[in-house]
Structures are given as C-alpha cells and as structure tokens.
Amino acid sequence: MPLRTATRQQLVDWYAEHARDLPWRRTGTTPYQVLVSEVMLQQTPVARVVPAYLEWVARWPTARALASAPSGEAVRQWGRLGYPRRALRLHAACARVVDRHDGNLPTTVEELLALPGVGDYTARAVAVFALRQRHPVVDTNVRRVVARLVEGVADAPVTKKDLALVATLLPVLDEDAATLSIAFMELGALVCTARSPLCASCPVAAWCRWLAAGSPALDAPVKRPQGYAGTDRQVRGRLMAVLRDASEPVPAAVLEQVWDEPVQRARALDGLVVDGLVDPLPDGRYALPG
Fold it and tell me: What is the model's pTM?
C-alpha cells in the first residue's frame, strides 16, 4: 500500500524544518559514528546519549581507535548509560572491522549483520542513515506512525513482518527513501507519540486513517517496563560504578559495601563476570575486562 506522493512530500518537508539538531546527523558523520549513536540509543533517551556520544567520538573518532583500546576502557567510558554489555559489543564489532575490513565499516546490511553484536535493526539503521541506502528500518516510533497513518490503529508491536510493509511505503530512489525513513522516525519521536500525540501539529494528519477513524484506543494496555529500584540491574549498576571509578582492581570487601543483601549482590556480581564485564583476579580482587 504505497503512500501518496503528497503525503511523502509533506512529511519530508516537515522533517527539513523541524528535525532535531543531533550530532550524529551532522555533515561529516562517519558510518562508525552512526553505529556508535545507534548502539547508545538502544533503550536510552536521546538527552542522555548526546553528551556520552560526543565524549566517546572525541576519544575514539574511528573504529580503529576504539579497537586499539582495552575493552575495559570502553566499559569505563560507557559510564552510566546502562546496559554496559553494549560497550563490549561495540568494541568487539570495531575489532572485527579492523581485522576484516581494514578499519572501515562494511557497506551492506549482510556484512554489517556479520559484526559481533550488530542486530537487524542496527545494521539497517547504519545502512540507511549513514550510507543512505534504501532499506526498511523499523523501531517503535516508525511502527506507531505506520500503524496510525496506514493501518488506522493506535499502535502495534514491532515484528519482522513490518519490514515488508514499510518497504512498500518508501520511494524508489535510495536518497529519497533514506530521508523518508528518518522522517518517519522523527515524527514518531516528536509528534506521533505513544501517550499524547500532537495530531493538530502533524504534517500528514489529513491522510491519517487512525485520526479519520476517531483515534480509537488500543485494544490492550501498553505493557509497562519493569521498575529499577531494588532490582539486580540496580545492584549491577552500583557494582559497575565502583569499578569504573577505580584506577586499580577493587578488593571484594569494597564491593560488599555496595549492597547490603549478600545473595542478591553475589548474584549480580556473578552475572557481570559471566557477561564479560568484570574480571575476577587470582588475588580475590575485581577489575574491568583487560
């Protein structure tokens, strides 16, 4: 079900006027830097990512620069972005880029998918936003815009079937398709939001099937994310904060002060070791990976 040319043009024109000035969208941004931004943006708000991204690319402006650093330094630099395994995966991906692609990110979705820790969404995002190729790229924002605009429903979960649907909405030329893809995403982030959509400000409201149907509510309530306080994630975060801030390996006794409940603390620490985020040393101390 292709979009009308007028609908596409309205959306592209809106994006040209209202798009946020994000550092990874600026002229001169490399595919590696787009990869960094996409990995950081997974489950993390844009406002928290921007300063972390700028510090990261200032320290490691290329994949080769990152790969030359110890993986533990990548974890340290990741700071409080959360889900620090992303830093390890990003480091491993750049090591593979250096080893097999002479330090330059590959240019096809298939080759990007072969990098450690790079999933389907991230591979497509790099190919579209950095390399300006024509591929459907679907996150929760894009899915919500398509659900409302094309299908006439309030929202829908992201599934692999969405790729085929979104592909039918893109124009033929690569550059035009890449621009429309990011415009979809921006509309979902700024206007066609999950809880309080700004329909009066929407550039494509005249063609929105959901609005025309009276903005029907979701059939089922949106699933709320798990809270943070008291979870293993919180304990892991506190343990990692101590290790990141330390210039030397940390004795076990120091980590024991992080959380009063010993069983949960031990479980969290064991999980960090299994995930490769913490190295237990022979002398009983703990450190970031080497």
Answer: 0.90
Judge whether 73 counts as a catalytic residue: no
Residues 21 and 96 grouped into a single domain = yes
pLDDT in tens, 12-38: 999 999 999 999 999 999 999 999 999
Tokens 């931004």 map to which residue? 37
Bridge pairing between strands 250-251 and 285-287:
antiparallel
CA angle 50, 85, 121 (to 5 degrees): 65
Residue 177 within a domain: yes
Cβ neighbours for 57, distance < 8 A, ≥ 6 positions apart: 23, 33, 36
Compute the Cα dihedral for 138, 140, 141, 142 and give only its sign. Answer: positive
- CA distance linking residue 13 with residue 254, whole number of Å: 56
Cβ contacts of residue 30 below 8 Å, gap of 6+? 62, 105, 130
Helix/strand/coil for 41: helix
* Residue from 38, 111, 175, 261 carrying the catalytic annotation: 38
- Same domain for 160 and 268? no
Cα–Cα distance for residue pair 10/132, rounded to 1 Å: 20
Residue 221 lies in a domain: no
- 220 falls within a domain: no
- Pick from 46-50, 219-223, 282-286: least confident: 219-223
| CB neighbourhood size of 210 (10 A) | 23
